[in-house]
Amino acid sequence: MAPNPVESPLHFPRQMHAVDYLMFRGEHAPRSRTAMLSVSLLDTVPDFDRLRAVYERASRVVVRMRQHVVEPVVPLTAPQWIVDPDFDLTYHVRRARLPEPGTVRQLLDFAQPIHAAPLDTARPLWEVHLVDGIRDGDARAALILKMHHAISDGVGGIALAGQIYDSERDTHRGPLPPIPVPEDVSSSDLLKSAVRHAPITITESVIRGTMRVVGVSLRALRKPDRAANGVARFVGSAQRVVGAPPVAPSPLLSRRGLGRRLEWHEFPFDRFRRAAKAAGGSVNDAYIAGLCGALGRYHAALGLPIESLPLALPVNLRNDDDPAAGNRFAGARIVAPIGEPDPVERIVAIREQVLTAVAEPAINALSAVAPLLARLPQPIIDTMASLGTGVDVQASNVPGFPDAPYIAGAKMLKTLAFGPVPGVAMMVVMFTEGGTCYVGVNYDTASITEPDLFVECLREGFDEILALGDEAPRPPTDSEVVS
Questions:
Q1: In Å, how far are 97, 220, 310, 396, 453 from 297, measured between CA atoms?
Q2: What is the pTM of this model?
Q3: Residue 149 bears catalytic tag
Q4: Which of 189, 244, 324, 415 sees the fewest Cβ atoms within 10 Å?
Q5: What number of other Cβ atoms are within 10 A of residue 252's Cβ?
Q6: Helices (H), 62-103
């Protein structure tokens, strides 16, 4: 048995952050749900009791896995994460079996409705499905994990996964931690507590607000020109960050519906990194460029070539002392150059735009207004969501573990990650683990109507980027240097 790994302490704030609450409130509407999904292929079928024991331990360490959200009757206070007194592990960890032949395509078709279905918001916001009957390469089973975005973002989710997955096939983590103390807290209880503390809370808010106003006023009085310029720059930045999209959306991807389809593509990380470096960009720049190449090909093949479309990508805002739970990211928008035929020029253009976008003064504008938005009546939030984001594509890049992890004695051969589709035509996630990049695409079938063509374009778009590294000169080996 491997030695017991050290479990780093985790912090889980009781009060729900406003951004997380906004995501939580979207769960009832099909087009605003924000659950994330991972599909991991396993080299063997793990014992189901052992798998449940893994998640029993995990739910004691990652307390969010035992907590549900309790909302106040009236939004006088923030919702709370409460340890569920009715927590039932058998509800959250389930099993299923695919019919023959048990391909990855069948697995993704099985996982898609799981992803699209609403989570029970009266329970902890996650579920796991062990799927038997897989016969694809060395894979013999699969693990489907669905987790609400309100629990954490992609980067934070990897930190939480470190408490669940193992670095070796047989790992002993020691005795079970104690069960988190269950709590019976109702919406009415939150309201009563808010009313009791209302005078103190209001006074503190007034004092903090007054001090901010006084501080801003004093700075403005000392240097009025600089203050005015700073306000003007911030307003202009906010318009670029949360205003109208930077370019007109694609007419080909304009329709929105309820149908979803999951696709994926994979390639070696080292080869891809070499290609990015050869073009003078980062791995993320090359990733976006490959996706743009795929979208450009898809538009051209259907007779509607365009130069660009609006694309959004998250910017990680996490500090080392931030808790793994919760969301710590901002959104950046760029003009995706899907009509640029030269992959190197595409990478250069993307790099310039991304560097400019992440430096925007108002990059974190959503977090600033989220406390207000989170308290709006549900019909107003639904109306805002129905208006859409004005963005065609969202793309995320999440680094996984350097080596493929294990769970309940089974090795994860590959993990495909899929994000939500909140009013966009598609969400794309590149997940890198064990030396391989896995690009998972969750798209709206009302926008992408030719699935086979799209898969072909996706492969060609990334093959074009990979070829840049093959053409680049390789560093000499030690024997070549000596000779």
A1: 37, 52, 16, 21, 9
A2: 0.85
A3: yes
A4: 244
A5: 20
A6: 89-92
What is the Cα–Cα distance from 459 to 441, expressed in whole angstroms?
12
Q: Where are the alpha helices (DSSP H) in 264-338?
A: 269-278, 283-301
Residue 296 confidence (pLDDT): 98
Parts of the chain with a pLDDT under 50: 1-8, 202-203, 205-207, 209-210, 212-214, 216-217, 477-483
Residue of 205, 203, 227, 202 whose CA lies nearest to 215:
227
Sheet of 410-418: strands edge to edge? Answer: 93-97, 126-136, 139-148, 35-42, 410-418, 406-407
Q: What pLDDT does 393 receive?
A: 97
Residue pair 227/219 in contact by the 8 Å Cβ criterion: yes
**Spatial distance between the Cα atoms of 462 and 210, rounded to a whole number of angstroms:** 53
Distance in angstroms (rounded) separating the CA atoms of residues 122 and 68: 6
- C-alpha span between 389 and 366 (Å, rounded): 13
Is the Cβ–Cβ distance between 341 and 213 less than 8 Å? Answer: no
Domains with residue ranges and CATH for the chain: 18-188 (3.30.559.10), 242-479 (3.30.559.30)
What pLDDT is attached to residue 130?
98
Residues 6+ apart with CB under 8 A from 303: none
Which of 149, 172, 265, 299 is flagged as catalytic?
149
Give the pair of three-digit tokens for residue 377.
């009546």
Residue 160 in contact with residue 58, Cβ under 8 Å? no
Residue 26 CA to residue 232 CA, distance in Å, equals 33
**CA dist., res. 328 & res. 475, Å (int):** 38
- Cβ pair 61, 423 in contact under 8 A: no
CA distance linking residue 145 with residue 138, whole number of Å: 20
Write out the two tokens for 428.
């794309």
Alpha helices in 253-401 (DSSP H): 269-278, 283-301, 343-358, 365-373, 378-386
